[in-house]
Write the structure tokens for this entry.
Amino acid sequence: MSGMPGGRRSPDWLEAQAPLARWYATGLGESILTRLEAALAARLGDVFGYQGLQVGNLAAGRDLLASAGLHRRLVLDAPGPTAGADDRPADIHADVTALPVANDSMKAVLFLHTLDFCAHPHQALREADRVLTDDGQLVIVGFNPWSAFGARHVMTGWRRREPWNGRFYGRGRVADWLSVLDYRVLDSHALFVRPPINSERVLRRLGALERLEPWLGALGGLYIVRARKQTLPMTMVRRQRFVRRAGLKAAGLARSGGERSSNVARVDFRKR
């Protein structure tokens, strides 16, 4: 998982945090956060542990991990002149590609548009994997390229204004990256089918469109991908099954050849 795909360069995650937070304070951003809170609350009820980490301090005053059964919920923000401001308090200030967090210490990690605005998304995923405990959950929130948000991203991204200048990855690509790290995707869901119009009055009038999510959900402006860290990598499971089958076959051959020769080689598959 090295190297960036071709095309538009991804913005720097550190520089994007403050503009993203300002965008989420608009009417459109607040509408998205309200819908996102409800969607996360419906999906994090099976998370239990000591602590979790939200990467991205974009939802001032909202605890997006509140529905998880965690004793501590930490928020990571980018360092800078606004770090620690009263309206955006954070517990940790650091770069997502070098988390100052101990190994195997988080039961859940929430990426809030982290991959959309990170020049090195693979490194960010590896850092999340490092700090997650066995069977911990990684929850990724991003913009859906196959939506009205994605169309606006294509048309206006050249202006270099957040959030439209981000790198919008599809859920399929994100799932592929997670499979390389031996994560099992628990669910993948798109939401917020309303168009990206920054008008609270218009968004309220279009609120009924959210009832069409069961049918138009794949076209939602945002997605949530939730995956569980595998205690035993799937590649190792497959290898163990292969060794077990090979051992049984070798044992059968040894028994059948015993009548013909007493010098049957013993095969130790554990050393392979």
Observations:
- Residues 2-7, 258-272 have pLDDT under 50 and may be disordered.
